[in-house]
Write a structure and sequence with these properties.
alpha+beta, 26% helix, 7-stranded antiparallel sheet
């Protein structure tokens, strides 16, 4: 199943008072691939000062993704993830989410609006041309109209509660189109940089159970110059104090857990190799651990042509490592997987091979509302050093810090 993100929009969500739209559309070039007549980027980076909306934009996408996949689990009368513009007194305006995506040989536009405890609108269209769309779903609160492939799930309308998206409900009742869309969004991963350790178990599982993926992970670690020669998964007995801490959160605590041990070459005083030393993952540097943690989702995304969002991409990673990861998507990506990341790493703006379409910025206006804009909106020469201009404040999206 082929899938790609084309555009994403949100409105009245946390810092975003007005509608903001992010796009992976770009002029045809070495950074793009063709999908259903659209030139789409493989990688895109979002910059901006702290508290300007970078993470919020990814969080908004996560809300959309999770509701598509899981809204049938919303209990009757339960609160929805309704987080309107923080500085507004109007708590009766819905939050809006929309995504344009490519799925196999079609392009769809799907959106919904929510209040605290109900879906107030939901729509699905197939985009046939810039001027023509084909409606599959129109919903205004509990007035639901379905067409074409979703017409087969007409009876699901009366089973769809006000807290549940019809698309999600239809997938539960085995509508083929709805199931395909839900599966596509299930293939989109969102990683928070500071919390990337939550993916370590997944990376360890790939490392342990799939020899091809293990070799790829080891190859990437070697290419990134961590001086790692090999790695094994071994059982490690948990210390008693760790078990006691875990008992506070879990009923069943194992005596042993799977642990990665990396082999590092040892050398004598004359730099002759004299063997290897096994080092527990927990004793490796924070950068090594962070890089290993996210390699599982990265390898899986590249192998299956998925979409990966990473928040605070550069957290604990050297600038050369962030560039290395981007290069994996730019140069080692036959299935056209996509990477979208937020970052403060301005060195990535310095590479002449990158183009304006790949860079986005967030900032707050004087009223505390977030804005989102692309570097492509600026008239710049092709040889412009974007990082220098950005740090000079030419594009905005910088913190205003008073001198001490």
């Amino acid at each position: 199943m082929s899938k790609s993100i084309i555009e994403f929009s949100t409105e009245n969500f946390k810092i975003f008072k007005n509608r903001v739209s992010f796009s992976m559309l770009a002029r045809k070039g070495s950074h793009t691939f063709e999908n259903n007549g659209q030139n789409l980027l493989r990688t895109s980076l979002i910059y901006g000062p702290n508290a300007s909306g970078k993470s919020t934009l990814l969080n908004a996408f996560l809300v959309l993704r999770n509701q598509i996949i899981n809204s049938t689990n919303n209990l009757e009368g339960a609160n929805l993830p309704y987080n309107p513009f923080l500085l507004s007194n109007n708590k009766s305006k819905p939050s809006f989410y929309e995504v344009v995506f490519s799925l196999n040989d079609k392009i769809f536009r799907y959106n919904f609006s929510i209040l605290k405890n109900e879906i107030v609108a939901e729509n699905l269209f197939e985009i046939l041309s810039p001027e023509k769309e084909k409606a599959y779903l129109n919903r205004k609160r509990q007035e639901i109209k379905v067409f074409h492939d979703l017409k087969k799930s007409e009876d699901v309308k009366i089973k769809t509660r006000k807290e549940v998206l019809f698309l999600s409900a239809a997938s539960q009742w085995n509508n083929n189109l709805a199931m395909e869309i839900v599966r596509a969004f299930n293939d989109i991963n969102v990683i928070s940089g500071p919390d990337s350790g939550g993916y370590r178990g997944y990376t360890v599982k790939l490392f342990k159970e799939n020899i091809d993926k293990k070799n790829k992970i080891l190859d990437f670690l070697k290419m990134a110059d961590f001086c790692i020669d090999d790695g094994t998964v071994e059982k490690m007995e948990l210390p008693d104090f760790v078990k006691k801490e875990m008992l506070l959160n879990f009923k069943d605590v194992p005596n042993e857990v799977d642990t990665i041990y990396f082999s590092h070459n040892k050398f004598d005083s004359k730099n002759n190799k004299i063997g290897t030393e096994k080092i527990n993952m927990g004793d490796e540097s924070n950068g090594t651990q962070k890089f290993f943690d996210i390699l599982g989702p990265i390898v899986d995304t590249l192998d299956k042509g998925k979409v990966l969002f990473i928040d605070e991409f550069d957290n604990s990673l050297h600038p050369f490592l962030t560039k290395f990861i981007i290069d994996l998507f730019e140069k080692n990506n036959p299935k056209n997987a996509q990477l979208i990341a937020t970052t403060h790493d301005t060195s990535l703006l310095s590479y002449p091979e990158f183009v304006k379409d790949q860079f986005w910025f967030t900032e707050k206006d004087s009223f505390g509302a977030g804005k989102l804009f692309s570097l492509a909106e600026f008239s710049l020469r092709n040889d412009t050093e974007y990082s220098k201009k950005y740090l000079e404040g030419r594009f905005g999206a910088l913190p205003f810090i008073k001198s001490i």
